[in-house]
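Data card: per-record layout.
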Amino acid sequence: MATREFSRRTERIEELITRIESSGDPAMRAVASELLQAVVELHGVALERICQELVEQPGGQDAIDRLAEDELVAGVLSLHGIHPQALEARVASALEEARPYLQSHGGDVELASIRDGVVRLRLHGACGHCSGSAQTMKSTVEEAIYRVAPEVLSIITEEVAAPTHSGLVALQVS
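The structure for this 174-residue chain is written out next.
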């Protein structure tokens, strides 16, 4: 439910931004863009103060951690850079969530790096009999990451081919 609500609201925001950007009046586009940025910054500062006040109260960090388990709240905190859990931990958690599905299709994923909002991954293997399995694996991983870390700017995947077996057995000569 929360994911659907968050998606619906972000889609509406994107729709409104598109309408503003397609406006024929460049001055009005600039004003609207500046207004949007000012509102986002205001909300970010207010949320940061709320979180800081909570942290200073007994059990406050636990309350923030529980709030961050809600996908809608987590998405907003992430977009403002104040999510209580580090980006690396959230991405690792997303990969663990996706891993059983990937493995059931003969694949796996490895985190290569996270830098400047860009997540680099290595996708291993894929089921040979599934058409488009590499794309399905990539989509599964991307969805899991963006769900817990909407502030990620992009995800770059490198496909690592599964080792091939020739059917021959290597013998050691002594």
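Known properties of this structure: The mean pLDDT is 84. Residues 82 and 123 are 30 Å apart (CA to CA).

See the next section for split statistics.
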